[in-house]
Amino acid sequence: MMKKLPVLTIFILFVIILLIVYFPTKQKHLYGWLNSLPKPWILNTKDISKILPQFHYRFPDFHERLKAFAIWRVGTPYEIFKLGEEVEPDLDPIIRLDLSDCTAHVLTTLAFVQSSSWEESRKNMIVIHYKPNLYGHKIPTFKTRWHYTLDRITANPYTVNITEQLLPLEKLVEKKLILNRQEDESEFLNLGWEREITFRYIPNSEINNNLLSKIPDVCGVAFVKKAYFNKGIAIGHEGMIINQKDLIHASSTVGKTVRLNFLDYYFRDSSPIFNGIMIYNYFPISASTP
Q1: Angle between helices 45-58 and 62-72 (to 10 degrees)
Q2: Is-contact 191 197, C-beta < 8 A?
Q3: pTM across the whole model
Q4: CATH classification of the domain holding 124
Q5: Residue 275 included in any domain
Q6: pLDDT at residue 12 is higher than 90
Q7: What confidence score (pLDDT) does residue 290 get?
Q8: Distance (Å, whole) CA 155 – CA 138
Q9: Domain tally for the chain?
């Protein structure tokens, strides 16, 4: 005669079955909902304002919502440098969904997933994309914009560098750089500032599945380009890694935002296309942010 299983054991088995069967099915249903939505780049501001609350309802977790919104944006047409302050010298809009480049995809997605309307998204984009003035207020101007990814991920509280948490320091490459200062000591951009920074990045020899297994389920990736160092720039591209394997990024080569395997993208024909990467995490805007 078979012995009866203890009640606790039965309960544990039930929970395991629930995790195996119910939650993947639920996730599949939630992400299937994205396919029922019209493409974001064809919608007007009123349409977006109607859809944003649904993202909050269906994806209450901040990072899951970030992932879902990024997936929804796959296919967005690519154009570079199409975000501005809506005043001279850059008349482009503060936030948009009709076009995207690599940084715009990351930052506008981060703004939209924390908002319930187009207007709130615009306000959140100002919080995320601009530095505070001497009085702690964020006013969108060309000179207060976070122009450099390295500057942003090492000083902005919403996109925080976690590279040094992933590997021992001896496995990282250390580099000293003066942001915005070119080899001839002129400014790369007319910003009236420069920043000396020592940073570490992950070399190509350490970029593999083992590294990906250590990163968050949703995180940012910044691609290091040595050829840009003499311009006072360290990062040549950025995107989002989801599920520890897929890259979502606005691609100038393809001409739109795409989702593809990260390692296949990075090691084309077994040869890396950049000199290394930095990984950063996403954080929501706090209620106390000015």
Answers
A1: 140
A2: no
A3: 0.89
A4: 1.10.3670.10
A5: yes
A6: no
A7: 45
A8: 15
A9: 1
**CB burial of residue 279 (10 Å; 0-12, 13-18, 19+):** buried
- Asked if residue 290 is part of any domain, the answer here is no
The CA distance from 17 to 160, in Å, is 36
16: its two tokens: 């395991």
Q: What percentage of the chain carries pLDDT values higher than 90?
A: 85
CB-based contact 256:267 (threshold 8 Å): no
Nearest residue to 242 (alpha-carbon basis) of 16, 31, 60: 31
| Residue 284 near residue 220, CB atoms below 8 Å | no
> Which residues 6+ apart lie within 8 Å of 138 measured at CB?
126, 127, 130, 131, 132, 144, 290
Euclidean distance between CA atoms 116 and 111, whole angstroms: 10
| Residue 21: predicted pLDDT | 46
- Domain for residue 21, yes or no? no
Q: Give CA–CA dist 201/218, Å, rounded.
A: 19
User: CA-CA distances (angstroms) from residue 67 to 168, 185, 217, 244?
Assistant: 28, 40, 9, 12
Distance (Å, whole) CA 255 – CA 101: 9
